[in-house]
Amino acid sequence: MNKKIIAMSAMMVAAVSGIAQVDSTATKLDQVLISADSKFELTRKDSGKPVIKITRADIEAQSAASLADLLNQYAGIEMNGARSNAGQNLGYFVRGGSTRQVAFLIDGAQVSDASNISNEFDIRLVDLNQIEEIEILKGAASTLYGANASTAVINIKLRKSPVTGVRVTVASFIGTNKSVEQANNGPDEFTNSVQLQGTAKNGLTYGVGFNHQATNGGLSAAEAADGASPNESDDFNRVNLLGRIGYDNRENFKISSYLSFDEYTAEFDDFTLVDANNETYSRQVRWGN
After folding, report:
1. Most CB contacts within 10 A, which of 117, 168, 198, 287?
2. Where is it mainly found (predicted)?
3. DSSP code of 230?
4. Which of 244, 246, 248 shows the shortest CA–CA distance to 259?
């Protein structure tokens, strides 16, 4: 009996060994470069901090409604207000740090909003269709980016030109913006985007983009009393324009410059959750390299 058990065990070990040899093929992964951890590109293995990199393919696959909705899907990040009505004011919480302890960069340059009390950047200004990729650096980086980078740095990289040829992207979304208690009587949310980027044979790179989002009718942050008619909706309207021009010889020289215009209007109710006709208006014009 013992001889049979030993023989069967030997056969099982040999089978497992054979399977292990068959499945021992290696898959080579693409190298991932990051620039938020230092002001120079590093491979992820050389970075001493946890980094999340969100590519354009990831953005399109997740079909998020906004930048806040996209960031809210990653571990350790809470975008307070991302699940509310369009245009809702937002609070950012990363690794226990609040809004004023998270630094935002656009193409490596730190951005802020002087109209906010703590000078934090308002990500409602940025449309997802403008973005090529996002780097999220978790952990303190105050040495590089100042006191606002106590818990995280989020680096947003805008759309860039393809290596060769021309790329045109057109996207349109139509939907409703009503609660289940309201009648569904037609579309009231519209998002449209047109992007064009290209590279000429002489190395000239260029790109233009237009994005527009409008939400009219439907949701209100303040809930109406039982039996009363629905409160007036809190509308949201945003326009984004982006232009980029540069030169790249694909060897040892590259230069690029962009100009962006971002503007939105958002209606909101009183902070006591009483229906009101308040409105927030914000506009930023940025130039960068």
Report:
1. 198
2. membrane
3. P
4. 244
**In the chain, what are the domain boundaries?**
33-288
pLDDT digits (tens, 9 = 90+) for 136-159: 988 888 778 877 788 889 999 998
Say which range, 26-30, 105-109, 271-275, has the weakest mean pLDDT: 26-30
Yes or no: say if 64 and 86 are a contact pair by the CB < 8 Å rule. no
Burial class (CB in 10 A: 0-12, 13-18, 19+), 9: exposed
Residue, of 64 and 26, whose pLDDT is higher? 64
pLDDT at 37: 53
- Using the structure block, give the residue that is written with the tokens 């449209």: 192
Kindly state which CATH superfamily the domain 33-288 is placed in. TonB-dependent receptor, plug domain (2.170.130.10)
- What pLDDT does residue 250 have? 84
**C-alpha torsion angle, residues 170, 113, 123, 247 (rounded to 10):** 40
278-288, strands of its sheet edge to edge: 165-175, 189-199, 204-215, 236-248, 254-268, 278-288
